[in-house]
Amino acid sequence: MLNEERVILMTKMASYEAGEGKKNMKIGKYFRGDYIAWQILKSIFCATIAFVLILALFVFYDFEVFMQDIYEMDLVGFAKTILMYYGITVVVYGAASYVVCAYRYSKARKSLKLYYQNLKKLNSLYKENLS
Amino acid sequence: MTALLELRDRLKYFYSKNEVFILPVGKFLLAFILLTVVNDKMGYMTRLDNIAIVLIAALACSFLPNFFIILFGAAFSLLHMYALSFEIAIVGMVVYLLMFLLFFRFGPADSLVVVLTPLLCCWKVPYIMPVAMGLLGTPASAVSVGCGIVVYYLLLAVTTSAPTISTMNAGDATAKIRLVIDGLLDSKAMLVMLVAFAITVVVVYLIRRMSIDYSWTIAMVAGVVLNLVILLVGDLVYETNISVVGAILGNILALGVAKLIEFFRFCVDYSRTEKVQFEDDEYYYYVKAIPKMTVAAPTKTVKHINTQRKASGRYDNRSVGRGSTTARRPQESQDDYEELF
Lengths: 131, 341
Fold this sequence. Notes:
The complex is a heterodimer.
Chain A: H1 4-18, H2 20-28, H3 32-61, H4 63-69, H5 75-130
Helix pairs in contact in A: 1-2, 1-5, 2-5, 3-5
Chain B: H1 2-41, H2 51-63, H3 67-84, H4 86-104, H5 111-122, H6 128-136, H7 141-167, H8 173-185, H9 188-208, H10 215-238, H11 244-265, E1 274-279, E2 284-289, E3 306-307, E4 310-311, E5 314-319, E6 325-327, H12 330-340
Antiparallel strand pairs in B: 1-2, 3-5, 4-5, 5-6
């Protein structure tokens, strides 16, 4: 016999699993610290590539002047400045990533909690039907 | 109002019934318009400026995920830049890569905004985007709108410096790079628009989330006014040469679009607001419930007219349209007749 409440609940859950749930379940597999650490690592990698690209563009922007100055400039000082900017970029972007990922993780956990509650409810509905 | 609500329900019903066809057609049209505009504005690679190629790419976008519309748009613009100059294509590639690495990682949901913003910029009505995204999105949408503006000004910098670049020799590689980067970074109009749109998105979002009556209307009016004020102040300070009349008309249009969005997404009846208060073991609840404006969808009722036919001394009733034939007692048949008239 069809149970209307059960069918509605299953439809809602199937829709969740196909859409938002897919993303949340991926996040839910991780512990909070692991998820955030992994995302920050990816962010550092992206920030590094982005920094290299900007640096390359900066060098090519005034390539002739740069090549003329390179023999006279304090290379160690220049490298220190570059490293300092790189550090700032990575720290700022990493911090922003931390905030976004922490928010995303807590949102996904809340959403999954609701999903598991519905799963329990569905289970109890099946048991009711059997008894 | 009732007619409008009925129309809205009919549109929603039509969309839900034909979603399978409407979505691909919508994506196809968006991709087609985007690629046509890119070809029209840039058009340096003549082989790419071909309706058959545009149609094939748009057709591919219609069944691929939304992000592919951005990819095709970026690929088309990069190929045009490459036809103009290899160095310009490198600059374009770096800007797109920076956006992809730093911003799209976090907000692929808003990917269409990055396409729509430059398109609306081309049509001189970008003011719709921040208000619309404030109503529909989150403060993070400001990043997507910002990326869209940067893309528009990058393409503008390329098209503006194209006549100069085409006269340069292959040896002037750094001069070409400098020309485009300067065109992009020195654009005060871009800076003013970035600030104005980001603030508008956040303010509209914050106001529409407030627990006040007519929050959506207040949010959109405040957003439009704020946007206009920032743009005008920016114009005064940086001499951005933004068309004041265009900005006013564009913001009025933005208000109209925002009203339309409100009608479809948040149509509530504040006159029937209910405030209730209750408690459970852990909390006190102060709840404000605002009923949605709805009308009962007009339903088509099919009345089965049973023809009366005397057949060998008894009534034989046929259910019209169903093909089933049932024999009933005379009294039942009489009831049907009375119900009908």
